[in-house]
Amino acid sequence: MERTFVLVKPDGVQRGLMGEIVQRLERRGLKLVAAKFLLPSLSLAERHYAVHLGKPFYPGLIRYITSGPVLAMVWEGPRAVDLVRQTMGATRPWEAAPGSIRHDFAVEMSRNLTHASDALETAEQEIALWFSPDELVSWERPH
Ligand code: CMP
């Protein structure tokens, strides 16, 4: 069982797509284990995107992610990291597979609605950055 981190970015919140994104992940069969709605601080944004520090798009990325509230979530399921990335679609919306969120709702790479962890190790780091352990809820579906 894997856990992965998902962020609905400010454009997703502002365009009213939070419900759509949550619904697609629920319908896929993944399980929500943590969620919070917040305006990310500069420090949180810088830590989240530390890997992109120095890249030309970094200042714009930090401005964008701190420009409005985001929905931060942790989703659980078998192969959750890959499943979620497939549901989101490729980072570049013009390369996203038909039926994926970025294919269906995005056109720009810099306004691509969501962030999802790219590997298990990154997922662990991002979950620890955005959530404290007691904010993760373990629960089971009745059989
Ligand atoms: P995300 O999955 O959040 O990870 C880093 C983000 O940086 C990425 O989605 C894009 O929104 C953004 N990004 C990556 N490359 C570029 C680029 N070349 N120009 C603008 N934004 C980019």
From TrEMBL:
Necessary cofactors: Mg(2+)
Which InterPro entries has this protein been placed in?
A: NDK-like_dom, NDK-like_dom_sf, Nucleoside_diP_kinase, Nucleoside_diP_kinase_AS
Which terms does the record give in the GO molecular function aspect?
ATP binding; metal ion binding; nucleoside diphosphate kinase activity
Tell me where in this chain the Nucleoside diphosphate kinase-like domain is found.
1-138
> Which residues are listed for ATP binding in this entry?
9, 57, 85, 91, 102, 112
Q: Is Nucleotide-binding among this UniProt entry's keywords?
A: yes
Record keywords: ATP-binding, Cytoplasm, Kinase, Magnesium, Metal-binding, Nucleotide metabolism, Nucleotide-binding, Phosphoprotein, Transferase
Provide the active-site residues from the annotation. 115
Signal sequence coordinates: none
Catalytic activity entry: dZDP + ATP = dZTP + ADP; a ribonucleoside 5'-diphosphate + ATP = a ribonucleoside 5'-triphosphate + ADP; a 2'-deoxyribonucleoside 5'-diphosphate + ATP = a 2'-deoxyribonucleoside 5'-triphosphate + ADP
Q: Where in the cell is it found?
A: Cytoplasm
Its domain of life reads Bacteria
> What is the E.C. number?
2.7.4.6
Q: GO cellular-component terms in the record?
A: cytoplasm
Q: What biological-process terms (Gene Ontology) are attached?
A: CTP biosynthetic process; GTP biosynthetic process; UTP biosynthetic process
Q: What's the chief localization of this chain?
A: cytoplasm
Q: What does this protein do?
A: (Microbial infection) Catalyzes the phosphorylation of dZDP to dZTP, when the bacterium is infected by a phage that produces the substrate for the synthesis of dZTP (2- amino-2'-deoxyadenosine 5'-triphosphate), which is then used by the phage as a DNA polymerase substrate.
Which family does the record claim for this protein? Belongs to the NDK family.
Subunit structure of this chain's protein: Homotetramer.
Family annotation (NCBIfam families): PRK00668.1
The entry's protein name is: Nucleoside diphosphate kinase
